[in-house]
Amino acid sequence: MSLTPDEIRTHLEALRGRDLPTHGGHTLAYVYDSGLASADAIGREVLAAFSSTNGLDPTAFPSLLAMENDLVGIAGRLVDAPDGFAGVVTSGGTESILLAVLAARDGRPDVAAPRMVLPTTAHAAFHKAAHWLGVEPVFVDVDPVTKRAVPEAMAAAIDDRTLLVVASAPSYAHGVIDPVEPIAAAASAAGVRCHVDACIGGWVLPHLRATEPDQLPWTFAVPGVTSLSLDLHKYAYTPKGVSVLLHASAALRRTHLFASARWPGYTMLNTTAQSTKSGGPLAAAWAVVHHIGAEGYAGLARTAREATLDLATAVSGIPGLSLAAEPDSTLLSLTTDGSCDVFTISDEMLARGWYIQPQMRFGDLPATLHLTFSAATATASDRIGRDLADSTAAARASGPVPVPAELVAAAGSLDPATLDDAAFDGLLALAGLGDGAGGLALPERMAPLNALLDALSPELREAILLGVIDRLARPSA
């Protein structure tokens, strides 16, 4: 049975009723809000206008190629790209990272069992790239205080099987810029590529240089940096999903280009992982970037940065809460003193209208709260500070979430490699998450579940969460 347009609109409005808000600065992860209604409007207009175009063949839609080349050029100038640099527009940071690893791997066909060296704070997209592309990740612990990569340890991890070294500008988890200069120098000395993941910082950090001249260097101006990723759907405030992957030369890019004429159809020719792709996101990004302009982005960056620093100052006056690291950009990472836990604070903030992302412990790094500040968040930074203080006080009053020892023991007895449906259903029932029909019933407050996951090994967390998403992502009756 078909639905009328009005029925569809009503149904979609109901479906969105439980979604996090994408505007107004209340969602401090996942979404980015410039607060500029005109930028949103032109982005939506152009997204729709170009939604039917196809980026598969640039000769069929030369407008898309022209806009892509223009965006790559603008991004390159932002990050000091050298003469002869090349780039591509991708669907997001993960695809940019996958292609950077692919280019490094296929650029060294002589290495039979390739490796890449990365700090433990590098984005998990590198883990996906390692898994999909057969590149062994060599993880190097970061400094426990600054949360930055340790250059000497990174250099020591490079061997004759290394084909890529990774640094972040900034890291997502803690919002700090890795010391790219010595890391890139070590990579260059070993004849190895160096990728800087600036997906979240690449469109904001350059606009802060004038007011923060002591910013750690991280762009192509650093000798040895061979590729760099930056997302437009983050701090360029464009519709999702658009990222840019830049290479210091066209030769370095060539090894992630793909062509196949070995079938009777059209010759497949791709610059990215996708073949058919709507031109809507690319065209919308082009429109928004040119609408806001360089001066506009500088103002938005300063606004988001000032809000970040203001809240960092406010945190110093909240008992039980502290900075996990001094912020280098517009990301804030918070931790507790043990009198409460970050998971309860996250739930308390959500009850007050703010989504703040809880991050679980890893190795010697404690569990944290992640806050991404957009320009639209700045007007509410005082309220965020007050609500954060109240939420922390409430969490301290209730104390850390108790995790039943028998539940941890039951979960810990499972082998992540052999976790089947029966064992997972038993675990759900023990945790009070089963719906009695093989499905999943998520609680309103997530702190008890997050505290349980925090007590488990990363491998077991992964296995359990794969089971969770498997049950959530099933056809409706």
Automatic annotation (TrEMBL):
Cited InterPro entries: GrpII_AminoAcid_Decarb, PyrdxlP-dep_de-COase, PyrdxlP-dep_Trfase, PyrdxlP-dep_Trfase_major, PyrdxlP-dep_Trfase_small
Cofactor: pyridoxal 5'-phosphate
Lineage: superkingdom: Bacteria
Keyword list, A-Z: Lyase, Pyridoxal phosphate
GO MF annotations, alphabetized: aromatic-L-amino-acid decarboxylase activity; pyridoxal phosphate binding
Entry keyword annotation includes Lyase: yes
Gene Ontology terms: biological process: carboxylic acid metabolic process
Family indicated by similarity: Belongs to the group II decarboxylase family. Sphingosine-1-phosphate lyase subfamily.
Protein name: Pyridoxal-dependent decarboxylase
Species name: Intrasporangium oryzae NRRL B-24470
Organism taxonomic ancestry: Bacteria, Bacillati, Actinomycetota, Actinomycetes, Micrococcales
